[in-house]
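Q: For a teaching handout, I want to show students what a protein-ligand complex looks like in token form. Below are the inputs, and the small molecule is pyridoxal-5'-phosphate. Please produce the holo structure.
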Amino acid sequence: MSGHEQKYINEAFETNWIAPLGPNVDAFEKEIAEYVGANDAVAVSSGTAAIHLALSLLDVNKGDIVFCSSLTFVASANPIIYQGADPVFIDSEPDTWNMSPQALERAFHDATNEGRLPKAVIVVNLYGQCAKMDEILSICNHYRVPIIEDAAESLGSTYKGRASGTFGKFGIFSFNGNKIITTSGGGMLISNDIEALKKARFLATQARDPAPHYQHSIIGFNYRLSNILAGIGRAQLEVLHDRVEARRVVFKRYHQELAHLPGFHLMPELEDTRSNRWLTALIINEADSGVSAGDVLKALANENIEARPVWKPLHMQPIFQGTRYYQHSNSENISEHLFNSGICLPSGSNLEEEDQLKIINCIKDVINNNSKERDVIHI
Ligand SMILES: Cc1ncc(COP(=O)(O)O)c(C=O)c1O
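A: Here is the structure, written as tokens, with pyridoxal-5'-phosphate included.
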């Protein structure tokens, strides 16, 4: 927290706006829309809810197909299942770790031949890094299929000077506790289509018809954000810039200390994009470094330092077994490679330099110890 949140919470209490609507909700929506340069925004209870609303607005229903990045958190795809539709997973490419345009093109090619185009494409911006939006937009525009940009992790990032999340028909952000700014839980749906977002507000408040009594003609959801949490979000948005800078400093320090080590490759930043570096992620080539991602994770855990593997691709998840998946190329399965060799390092905006050096030293020690062990075996 920045310290300013209490002011907005107090305002909500003093004016008795303790509801999933109110002045903080209205202002938070306006401020986010202004920040990213979108026409409008709808504050909701989670990023997952925002994706679900976007799919509903695009009329995704039972039996429809939705293309979705495979290397992501499960929340990107779960709403496809809520709607009774079928996901098709698309691999990553190595420059951004995000959706591979060439795999996407092949998926569209097959879908055209089968006479079953997807209703939407969910493009994820992993760990703050924007996907290759120009290429992806050009393919999706060609097939006239709308994009939902899952920018849950990339608020504050830019692609060619434009805010991440603003490239699709809809964009979504998450304010979950682990995100770059948080409301403890919450999300935002953004779009330039003001009419669609009006409908989103209607759907998110149980789809109540405009009648004096309670009347409902379609099924809605209870997805609006509380006025108190929106107050937290307003104060958090004020420090978003500082949070991005802090995370980029964390990344820079890791880069200075680790990038020159053989076999260590930090997540790239595509030219003309600026990542919020929500998480510093890297892959470790065991043959070159002498250590595996698992060795590093274990050594960090022994020091009580929490690090994680890169997201397990959705096409590898038990719940999505048998789901169609398009690899980057016949010989390159990028998301599986990233999962097998990737880790995310502690990257909090409040990570102290001293703590970060402890993490870095721990990683260097694993490499040294493993190489000593190898020397002993060799002797
Ligand atoms: C890529 C991605 N998409 C969607 C979500 C869902 O957001 P939420 O947790 O707010 O529902 C998250 C994070 O949790 C995420 O990382």
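A: Two things your students might notice: The first helix runs from residue 5 to 14. Residues 175 and 182 are 4 Å apart (CA to CA).
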